[in-house]
Amino acid sequence: MSTETTSGTGPADTQEMTFREAIRLALREEMERDEDVFIMGEDVGKFGGVYEVTGDLVEQFGEARVRDTPISEAGFMGAGVGAAATGSRPIVEIMFSDFIGVCSEQIINQMAKNRYMFGGKTEMPITVRTTEGGGSGAASQHSGTLHTWFAHFPGVMAVAPGTPESAKGLLKSAIRSDDPVIFFENKEIYGQTGEVPLDENYTLPIGEANVEREGEDVTVVATQRMVGESLELAEELDGQVSVEVIDPRSLYPLDTDTLVESVKKTGRLVIADESPLSYGTHAEIGMRVMENAFFSLDAPIQRVGVADVHIPFSPVLEDEVLPHASDVEAAINRIV
Amino acid sequence: MSTETTSGTGPADTQEMTFREAIRLALREEMERDEDVFIMGEDVGKFGGVYEVTGDLVEQFGEARVRDTPISEAGFMGAGVGAAATGSRPIVEIMFSDFIGVCSEQIINQMAKNRYMFGGKTEMPITVRTTEGGGSGAASQHSGTLHTWFAHFPGVMAVAPGTPESAKGLLKSAIRSDDPVIFFENKEIYGQTGEVPLDENYTLPIGEANVEREGEDVTVVATQRMVGESLELAEELDGQVSVEVIDPRSLYPLDTDTLVESVKKTGRLVIADESPLSYGTHAEIGMRVMENAFFSLDAPIQRVGVADVHIPFSPVLEDEVLPHASDVEAAINRIV
Amino acid sequence: MVVIDIETEDGQREALRRMLTIRAFDTKAGDLFADGELPGFVHLYVGEEAVGVGACSALEADDYITSTHRGHGHCIAKGLDPKKMMSELYGKADGYCNGKGGSMHIADVDAGMLGANGIVGAGPPLATGAALTAQLKGEDKVALAFFGDGAVAQGQVHEAINIAATWDLPAVFVVENNQYGEGTPVEKQHNVQNLSETAEAYNIPGFTVDGMDITAVYEAVKEARNRAADGQGPTLIEAETYRYHGHFEGDQQPYRTEEDIDIWKDRDAIESFKQRLVDAGTITEDEFDEMKAEIDEQIETAVEEAKSAPYPDPSEAYEDMFNATVPEISQFSSQMRADGGEDR
Amino acid sequence: MVVIDIETEDGQREALRRMLTIRAFDTKAGDLFADGELPGFVHLYVGEEAVGVGACSALEADDYITSTHRGHGHCIAKGLDPKKMMSELYGKADGYCNGKGGSMHIADVDAGMLGANGIVGAGPPLATGAALTAQLKGEDKVALAFFGDGAVAQGQVHEAINIAATWDLPAVFVVENNQYGEGTPVEKQHNVQNLSETAEAYNIPGFTVDGMDITAVYEAVKEARNRAADGQGPTLIEAETYRYHGHFEGDQQPYRTEEDIDIWKDRDAIESFKQRLVDAGTITEDEFDEMKAEIDEQIETAVEEAKSAPYPDPSEAYEDMFNATVPEISQFSSQMRADGGEDR
Ligand SMILES: Cc1ncc(C[n+]2csc(CCOP(=O)(O)OP(=O)(O)O)c2C)c(N)n1
Ligand SMILES: Cc1ncc(C[n+]2csc(CCOP(=O)(O)OP(=O)(O)O)c2C)c(N)n1
Ligand SMILES: [Mg+2]
Ligand SMILES: [Mg+2]
């Protein structure tokens, strides 16, 4: 993993921490830096968030800025939009992205549209944090991966990092951005660790993919949990197949250039993302590559995702439908 | 346009009518046929629907079965789900698909999931009718094309016909289906006319594309308004380029076979759909074709849609962003 | 925004002027729409002028309002310029939104007008958010949400009021009960007699006032503003009023008769307020006629200027999505533009 | 469903049995979860038994209920089989949902149980819809929605009650006010003192009853059911209760103390109901102990059987999405299955 920082401090200034801690650190730093930043969501305060992401932030910043809400996502999502339009810089937490259906109106018709509809005369500096993904037996209403919706819907940026470092750098950029960003956190990697820059000015530009590992034979574009799984797989396959692993990190905007460049080199592409396959994130990534590297492709693009079903409860069923490294491996084997 | 009917009556049994009338006819026939069918939505009764689709149905079926609702889409969408689970066969009208954000929770977490979560032990015979599309100066909150969301989200079928005949045949299938179907009606083609079978048993299977016009040089997969525009264009180009026009009609399930077969013949594909381009309907259609006809493709797939912006109000701007036949023509020219 | 002190004679005359401006603007907009001059939908505020003007007269300059699909009246009441509004209705480059928004999306965030809104019930959460900013920053600002009787049935309105009540936010909620949501009468949308009864669900003050009486609206909102600014939380005010036109222009109105409308026209808010000012000697009949003529001319000029103003350049359709630059938009759009530009 | 006539002695004993069954089932589920036996989340109903059983005792066999994430109690109260429930908690093939649903999605539509629900506030609209079917078909059925104090802040709950009230649907809305939504106390979620006050917004009867007293719950719901079945529309009943466990198992509960919980345990619903039955001679202490032992054994057996029951075949993950056959699912899944099957 790269340890680039924007401030030029060396790799010594990193610390190993979990994905969850990296997010909390980003929140803390940005709240320290800018008084207009506040957090709003269900049980983000004393409870510390159901996935313990906000943790102790309420102790440092108080209940006004780490604000527990009634169970009224549309109301407080809209309040976030109204607050952002009037000089605040809210971070709204939606506990599970599966719940976003109760408040998607405020996202699609207000947050995403105000700037455009008003002729560019307003900014919308809001960040929505939410969780995604299966793997813990949370069943169909708490395990979905919905980021394709918001990568597709114009007017919001959709970020879905796969490593603690990216999580910190991108969340800070999201908070500082004057545009609305929806930040998707895969629940299964909250505990994964990595070296994270401690520099308070370390940010990563939204819209830049990261080549997590270089390779020659096949490009694996992987998101969220699939990043780590693909990296491990690549190590395992080392010597047999040389696998390049890229985390797009931001789904919208999408760093087409980095992906295309890689496929021009390898000639082969596997896309691994936990979305349902039909009309999923995979299709867009595939099309972009095809549009820009059509004559470099040596084999059909392979998609690894969920076969258009919901995430079932029973561990055997859940395990069956979720994408795993073994699926990526099979996809690689089909084309290499 | 084909005039196939399932009952074997001849083409004499068709009548020219508008897209709007074809829908109303389907509603009327199914309500006559099955007492459990009822319609629920805002101003669908005496007002006749803002696009005059339900029209005089309330006079025939009464206010209980053509039911005006409070402006509570989540409430009545959920009531539709609850009614469908208990022996009714509701048709829920959401005036504009742009509003679906206030009630998407009931679609994605209840309607789409109940059958699966409950182990297949319930059916969900509900149809949601809604409108889409720009072209009438209705501005950003009343002009969107959102069908990709529901083509992507597992557990609902997404139907978006381009002709009056398809509209009748597919809506009747949707109503009779024991699965949830979201039926997207492009507002700009409500007034378009076509021959529509009068047979009360005329239905079209959901999941079958229709080759609206045969051709040899390039396949244009077009949806909704783009079907008619592409057919006209194909006529204009006749003699220069031989254009095959296919209306997928159903986006989920998608009739991959018909599309693939066509591209195997023509070697070239243009996809014209009014969705925003990134992560849009186009990408999935393109991927399916690529996965199944990779070595038949003679040129990169071309996408015609909206360039990731909202539909603006001013006629010059709206006209600019909406896809037109001229865009399809340019796309054809790029690859033929 | 010029604040109107409606407790002074100048303020009363200004309030009357704004009511007349709304009436003239929207009557004109209706005519223009009927003539096929304006694209899209227009929802007119004619008949409801006392609500918008009465409420905005009770606000301070920096206060915020959120509006609805029926927003022209709120804009004018908040002091927006009818010229830039008319240009927006025509989709011209010098409109409030440079032609991108149209009738349903006029906004002037700097003037505290957070936007007309095409989504029923979407405004109240925004007002709750604006009030939250004020509370967090300790600013003496209040956010007022206008919404219709129909909107009271929307879940997000309920959520917004509950949050504002629970957090004692400086917000004021004004229900414009014009008796219908599109063609559906209020009693088919709600089970309560007066919509102000819904205030009970939030344990906040709720009042029903005569929305045809600008003073009644003003006084109720003034008190609500004071409470809100004082940290005592929101108030819900139902103003009973009536729209003289159809839901949108073109509405055949099968749901009511001319006579139904006349009952309310007999209590016309402008007519009665004018009469009171004439009786009190605040304005003479001549001055009133002059004011009216002036306004009519102002609106005529606005229309002429809007007509002759240039449309935005088509390329502007691809601007304003984000503050940042997004490669997708430029790539997709340059391809689309390179193609079919000429024969549009 | 076996209907309990709680006005008879048999019925009272059966009600007690169901309360005890809920307590035993959920206490056991909590232990199993702590032991790492159960995947996912479990939300326990321990402490709230009088609400579910009291309410369901007032229903007829064909009536419907909708439930919540905290649904085990409602299931047992409606007469579902703890064995099939326990199997479902284990994700086994013989569970109510064949293992696909788990704790949060147990349903038995044929028994009128329209589903536990992982989405706060999603149940009431479903109940409104079930009541609509009953009204449309002229059936003598009522739909009862259970939901939490937190859910009252959800827009769709507001919408569902308003629709039911406006259409006089045969529905009953039961708020289980257990004082918290996760870690947030009810007073931080609402501005009203009693949640039954929200009934005012719908002009329907609203009552607050002691949710630790099964008779109080039963009587209020019985009356509400009668009204509903009579065509007089819905009633809102708030039952004040308390959950003895954390929000979900594993919750550290920083928001309350053991003493807070003890105050409610002192008024335990099972204890007090039992005492009343003993005092009235409906049951003896011995009979009670026997009943409890029987239930404990029933639950133990359920656990044993659930443990040894087979998991569903992995291929079943790709079934039950639609009644129709969808080619996508078979194509995508056969590819996925052909691949990595073995090393899962
Ligand atoms: C969420 C949503 N549902 C439906 C509509 C369509 N619609 C536009 S205005 C309107 C009626 C609104 O009634 P009311 O709130 O009373 O406002 P009024 O038009 O009377 O001013 C409806 C149903 C919408 N714009 N948004
Ligand atoms: C729409 C939605 N928002 C948030 C959640 C997360 N959540 C699950 S239970 C719960 C608390 C519910 O409180 P209440 O309604 O009082 O029910 P209780 O848990 O107390 O029985 C929350 C916030 C959810 N499941 N759905
Ligand atoms: Mg109204
Ligand atoms: Mg609770």
TrEMBL record, chains A, B:
Cofactor: thiamine diphosphate
Entries under InterPro entries matching the protein: THDP-binding (IPR029061), Transketo_C/PFOR_II (IPR009014), Transketolase-like_Pyr-bd (IPR005475), Transketolase_C (IPR033248)
GO molecular function, one term: oxidoreductase activity
Residue span(s) of domain Transketolase-like pyrimidine-binding: 17-192
Presence of the UniProt keyword Flavoprotein in the record: no
Keyword tags: Oxidoreductase, Thiamine pyrophosphate
Pfam family, one: Transket_pyr
SUPFAM superfamilies, A to Z: Thiamin diphosphate-binding fold (THDP-binding), TK C-terminal domain-like
Gene Ontology annotations of biological process type: organic acid metabolic process; sulfur compound biosynthetic process
The keyword Cell cycle is annotated on this UniProt entry: no
Protein name as it appears in the record: Acetoin dehydrogenase
Lineage: Archaea, Methanobacteriati, Methanobacteriota, Stenosarchaea group, Halobacteria
From TrEMBL, chains C, D:
The protein's required cofactors: thiamine diphosphate
Name of the protein this chain belongs to: ABC transporter substrate-binding protein
Gene3D superfamilies, per database record: 3.40.50.970
Organismal lineage: Archaea, Methanobacteriati, Methanobacteriota, Stenosarchaea group, Halobacteria
Domain named Dehydrogenase E1 component: residues: 18-314
Domain of life, per lineage: Archaea
Pfam family, one: E1_dh
GO biological process, one term: pyruvate decarboxylation to acetyl-CoA
Cited InterPro entries: DH_E1, PDH_E1_Alpha_Subunit, THDP-binding
GO molecular function, one term: pyruvate dehydrogenase (acetyl-transferring) activity
Keywords from the UniProt entry: Oxidoreductase, Thiamine pyrophosphate
Disulfide bond is among the record's keywords: no
Presence of the UniProt keyword Acyltransferase in the record: no
